[in-house]
Write a structure and sequence with these properties.
41% of the residues lie in helices and 16% in strands. By secondary structure, it is an alpha/beta fold. α4 packs across α5. The chain is globular, with a radius of gyration of 17 Å. Bound molecules: pyridoxal-5'-phosphate.
Length: 223
């Protein structure tokens, strides 16, 4: 086994330092290593270094890359997160394959997930995506609709919601968006926050992130 990749070691250390600076236990923060679009040669050293939690933004790409895990004991202990938009007609595959789905953002999808969870008896952990910047091109429920959507998922559809996820606008300081997500979670009794990417995960940790989704800082820039 070769030495763990420097970039990965550095991100893990930065997460620990950011947690300590915020008076938090680094163990409360999960690094989701975002492996989308990366070749296996880039992923394997990170796996070998002990990373077990990975994020993918496309169902088909994830299944092609990680589909081995039911057969390969080396991959059995992984936790796979879907962090990209999910079409309702792929709910079946997503429920069967992912351990965490972070992009629940509309009623049609929530209904499709509830039905698949019932049918398959498999329950991925679910996050609701909030479009904190209300950007038209971005997925997620608007902050104003978030409480009602959370209630719909829980009460009408019987879904267990673990937390909230957001992707702040690229051209704004992320802090206010992280604060908004934390406030929506607090008033809905949710304690888990998926927020922070390569450019802003330390800020996200300061604002209470319980998981950070880091791609390029771990694996290098995408093509
Ligand atoms: C690609 C992606 C990330 C990782 O982005 P980096 O800037 O490479 O760290 C995180 N979250 C989501 C939803 C993504 O699509």
């Amino acid at each position: 086994m070769s030495a763990p990749p420097e970039a990965y070691v550095d991100v893990v250390a930065r997460i620990a330092r950011a947690a300590q600076a915020a008076g938090r236990d680094p163990a409360e923060i999960t690094l989701v290593a975002v492996s989308k679009q990366k070749p296996w040669e880039a992923i394997e050293p990170v796996l070998d270094a002990g990373q077990t939690v990975f994020g993918e933004n496309r169902v088909q790409e994830a299944m092609a890359r990680w589909g081995e895990r039911s057969r390969n004991p080396a991959l059995a202990g992984l936790t796979l997160h879907l962090i990209g938009p999910l079409q309702s007609n792929k709910a079946k595959e997503a429920v069967a394959f992912f351990d965490v789905i972070e992009t629940v953002d509309r009623e049609k999808l929530a209904r499709a997930l509830a039905e698949e969870i019932r049918k398959q008896g498999r329950t991925p952990r679910l996050y609701i995506q909030v479009n904190t910047g209300e950007e038209p091109q971005k997925a997620g429920v608007s902050p104003a609709e978030a409480d009602a959507f959370i209630a719909l998922c829980r009460d009408a559809l019987g879904l267990s919601i673990e937390g909230l996820m957001c992707i702040p606008p690229a051209d704004e300081p992320p802090g206010p968006h992280f604060a908004l997500l934390r406030e929506i979670a607090r008033r809905n009794g949710l304690s888990r926050l998926s927020m922070g990417m390569s450019g802003d995960f330390e800020t996200a940790i300061r604002f209470g992130a319980t998981s950070v989704r880091v791609g390029s800082a771990v694996f290098g820039a995408r093509g």
